[in-house]
Design brief:
The chain has 2 domains: 59 residues, DNA polymerase, domain 1; 278 residues, TIM Barrel. It is built from 12 helices and 14 strands. The strands form 3 sheets. A 10-stranded mixed beta sheet has the order 3-4-5-6-9-10-11-12-13-14. A two-stranded parallel sheet has the order 1-2. Strand 9, helix 5 and strand 10 form a beta-alpha-beta unit. Helix 1 packs across helix 2, helix 4 crosses helix 5 and helix 6 packs parallel to helix 9. The structure holds iron/sulfur cluster.
């Protein structure tokens, strides 16, 4: 079976080239064609010999995706449903957002998710598999080709738990980072996790300069466990110890995501508990007005409550912002488009 050439980071691709009797610099040439020129065939790699192009064609695939749906919001956010073109024609989602500082893409890391967060559209659909390295990268390349743009920021916040696909995530980041790859600095990459504690330690030890976002959503174990089953395995105290370790190792601020759901975690008592949990920590809180999902149990907080919550945190020394709501008219919350398509 042919392998995706985008599953290899530069060092591995050099080894692949040497194994077929080619010089290692061929890997650098191929890397440039793949990630900087974003070609859709081996034939276009014109500085490689015809013989090498033929051998690449015989042994590898480029792992291109098919765009199944593309929805565009009135605010410019574009949501893609992508067929990864495997045997089962599995689908994933990626979202393109435009900010004043450039284009940001939210990418998926798995086909489905095992975490079962109660507010997430991916919950209730069986987990299928981890995305391969090339499939993580191809989301970026597909959208760059489709929109004829260069993406400057990447957030791992789409379908799946990125730290549950740790090795592929690390290789994908190496390709995204590499000057001969997509050349996007680690500071422009955010990894969002529901809180897989051992992997937070592992990530900290790697000392890559990505931003870590923790999906916290509650400062008490009872509320958090009711929203996120992972809290029963790694309760808040254990998670916070890992966060402190991450900050100590990387000297980087952690972003805590907090989805506000009406009468669930959005009153001033909840804000007080959050202040107590995060005070003195190198942290930022990002409040997310919850994006209601079909048959979901949560509804969005009122604007008044969201503002009160933010002001309470800011007034008590916790830097807090409210995430701009993008793409609500196209169901931009992760998993919704895929779920709808599966039903159809
Ligand atoms: S919110 Fe993220 S981690 Fe939780 S179920 Fe959805 S995709 Fe998985």
């Amino acid at each position: 079976m042919k392998k995706s050439i985008k599953n290899y980071d530069l060092d591995d691709l050099k080894k692949e080239m040497m194994a077929i009797g080619e010089k290692p610099f061929r890997a650098e040439q191929i890397f440039k064609w793949l990630y900087q020129d974003n070609v859709t065939s081996f034939e276009e790699m014109t500085n490689l010999s015809l013989d090498l192009r033929r051998r690449l064609e015989e042994n590898y695939i480029l792992g291109l995706f098919k765009i199944v749906h593309k929805l565009e919001s009135i605010d410019g956010t574009k949501k893609y449903l992508l067929d990864v073109q495997d045997e089962e024609h599995n689908m994933i989602e990626a979202v393109l957002m435009q900010y004043h500082h450039g284009y940001t893409i939210c990418v998926s890391s798995q086909i489905g998710c095992k975490m079962g967060c109660k507010f997430c559209a991916s919950t209730g659909i069986p987990f299928v598999r981890n995305l391969e390295v090339g499939e993580i990268i191809e989301q970026i390349l597909t959208i760059q080709r489709d929109e004829k743009i260069t993406i400057s920021n990447i957030v791992f916040m789409g379908i799946g738990e990125p730290l549950d696909n740790f090795d592929h995530l690390m290789k994908a980041i190496a390709i995204i980072n590499h000057p001969k790859g997509l050349h996007i600095g680690a500071r422009h990459i955010s990894i969002s996790t529901s809180g897989i504690v051992p992997k937070i330690y592992e990530l900290a030890d790697k000392q890559i300069q990505c931003t870590l976002s923790i999906s916290l959503h509650a400062a008490s174990n009872s509320i958090r466990s009711s929203m996120m089953p992972i809290n029963q395995t790694y309760p808040i105290e254990t998670l916070m110890e890992a966060c402190q370790y991450y900050i100590k190792k990387t000297n980087k601020r952690i972003s805590f995501e907090y989805a506000l759901a009406k009468d669930n975690n959005d009153n001033i008592e909840d804000a007080k508990a959050l202040v107590n949990l995060l005070k003195g920590m190198l942290a930022h809180v990002n409040l997310i007005p919850i994006n209601p999902i079909e048959k979901g149990i949560y509804t969005k907080s009122t604007n008044e409550n969201i503002i009160k919550f933010r002001d309470y945190l800011n007034n008590h020394g916790i830097i807090t912002t409210i995430r701009r709501e993008l793409g609500t008219d196209i169901n931009a919350a992760c998993g919704q488009l895929r779920k709808q398509n599966m039903k159809e």
